[in-house]
Design brief:
- This protein has about 475 residues and is mainly alpha-helical.
- The chain folds into 2 domains: about 200 residues, MFS general substrate transporter like domains (Growth Hormone, Chain: A, Up-down Bundle), CATH 1.20.1250; about 230 residues, Up-down Bundle (Growth Hormone, Chain: A), CATH 1.20.1250.20.
- The protein contains 19 helices and 6 strands.
- The protein has a two-stranded antiparallel ribbon. Strands 3-4 form a two-stranded antiparallel ribbon. Strands 5-6 form a two-stranded antiparallel sheet.
- It is globular and about 70 Å long.
Length: about 475
């Protein structure tokens, strides 16, 4: 999209910032809904007399819903528009909040959590796509990073609300209001941001690229002029229409190409998503209590240590927002991969020197506890400042107009499946040994470095209409030849 032609073209247009924040509210619910169960899981296990294995299944079931929601979000967005997907997602969040909070058994709780997963998956697709399609190219990275900022804020809000509700009730399994236990209210409070998200979505303008695809050129011109400051929208609309290709219904068939059945750029998006999860970000702190205890924190200070981690995530996301449009997406990913490789490698070495008792619990003694703690937090910093937000930015902007929503849906679905795989395999990895687990994640971080160097293009400052599905990427540059 052409940059605003106003005297203050280096400043973000307030309107486009506002609508980007509105779209990113889906990311807030993404983070909130996926994390809120953490404070309720012990009470759920006790309430319904679940085994550890079944409790893990109940928690992980939502991830499969996320994959399904992401898979279908692109098709729905192409057919009915980006805004309607946001509204549908908000409605599913609302249903999940009430259903989970009022669940009468574990099976209907799983059903409501899967419905929440559908909403998370849809939100994970539509927010980056929409923001990329309305943002000026010079600010697209910063605005796209709002998705990750909203996610980490949602995680922190869920953590805080869980803690407060449990505190007010003197325990998550104790009654709080209206005869309902605190853990039920942990789910019910998600209805508040769900309603806010739905109301905000109804006030957002539709994506100009979707409008052009449906031949609503006048509406597209109005959005381009009002929200980007563009003075000659007709030329941009013609450029968008040309990039859309043939006027036909979009589907998964559009992703077919010569590289193992898919366009090369689609494979790049899928592998970006998989590597983002395979570095182990969602399980790295399963043993955080051990790390924090090794430097003097008590086990009952879990909320404090989790808060420190959440605040760290927020701070480093701000750093990413400041850098992504200055030094580019590719360099940030390379820095992140290198930093994560070193940090995870140090954790593997630290746990190789741990003492393991008869129950299989690892204890870090001497300097190894401090080393592991520093390495774990360094990993969070490197991930949060690079791979966390930048992958969402790239997924929103790297695909051509005619396949963006569909390709993003496939990549996001792959990300949720990778998330599920890493979550369910961690206990097995840990039973082999934490050195093996962290060594595996370190090897994935190293592979991600090589992948970015050879296969990921730099898209900083590029117009969305310049993206091509069939190009080869060599060392960050587009090369027009077969993959």
């Amino acid at each position: 999209m052409s940059e605003p032609s106003s005297p203050n073209e280096q400043r973000l247009h307030r309107r486009v910032v506002a609508i980007s924040i509105g779209a990113a509210l889906g990311g807030f619910l993404f983070g909130f809904d996926s994390s809120v169960i953490n404070g309720a899981v012990d009470s759920i296990q006790g309430k319904f007399a679940l085994s550890d294995a079944f409790t893990g299944f109940a928690v992980a079931a939502a991830l499969l819903g996320c994959a399904v929601g992401a898979w279908f979000a692109g098709t729905i967005a192409n057919r009915y528009g980006r805004i309607r997907v946001m509204v549908l997602s908000a409605l599913l969040f609302l249903i999940s909040a009430f259903g989970s909070g009022l669940a009468f058994g574990v099976w209907d709780l799983i059903l409501w959590r899967v419905i929440g997963g559908l909403a998370i998956g849809a939100a994970s697709v539509i927010a980056p796509a929409y923001i990329a399609e309305v943002a000026p190219s010079s600010f697209r990275g910063r605005l796209g990073s709002l998705q990750q900022m909203a996610i980490v804020l949602g995680i922190f809000a869920a953590l805080l609300s869980d803690q407060l509700l449990a505190l007010w009730a003197d325990g998550a399994d104790q009654e709080l209001w209206l005869g309902l236990e605190a853990w039920r209210w942990m789910f019910l409070v998600a209805a508040i941001p769900a309603v806010i998200y739905g109301m905000a979505a109804l006030r957002l303008p539709e994506s100009p690229r979707y409008l052009v695809s449906k031949h609503h050129d006048d509406e597209a011109a109005e959005v381009l002029e009002q929200y980007t400051g563009m003075t000659d929208a007709s030329a941009k609309i013609a450029e968008i229409r040309e990039s859309m290709g043939q006027d036909e219904e979009r589907s998964l068939k559009d992703l077919r190409g010569h590289a193992l059945g898919l366009h090369p750029i689609v494979w790049t998006g899928i592998l970006l998503s998989v590597f983002q999860q395979f570095v182990g970000i969602n399980v790295i702190f399963y043993y955080s209590t051990t790390l924090w205890k090794s430097v003097g924190f008590d086990e009952d200070q879990a909320f404090l240590t989790s808060t420190i981690t959440s605040v760290t995530n927020i701070v480093v996301t701000i750093i990413a927002i400041a850098l992504v449009d200055r030094i580019g997406r590719r360099l940030l990913l390379l820095i992140g991969s290198a930093g994560m490789t070193v940090a995870l490698g140090l954790m593997a070495v630290a746990f190789a020197n741990a003492t393991v008792n008869d129950a299989g619990d690892a204890t870090l003694t001497g300097a190894w506890g401090t080393i592991a703690l520093i390495a774990a937090n360094a990993f969070v910093v490197f991930f949060g400042a690079t791979w966390g937000p930048v992958v969402w930015v790239l997924l929103g902007e790297m695909f051509p107009n005619n396949i963006r929503a569909t390709a993003l849906a496939v990549a996001a679905a792959a990300q949720w499946l990778a998330n599920w795989f890493i979550t369910v395999t961690f206990p097995g990895f840990a039973s082999i040994g934490l050195t093996f687990a962290y060594g595996f994640y370190a090897s994935m971080a190293l592979l991600s470095l090589l992948f970015v160097y050879f296969r990921v293009p730099e898209t900083k400052g590029m117009e969305l209409e310049a993206m091509d599905a069939d190009v080869k990427v060599h060392r960050g540059q587009f090369v027009r030849e077969s993959m």
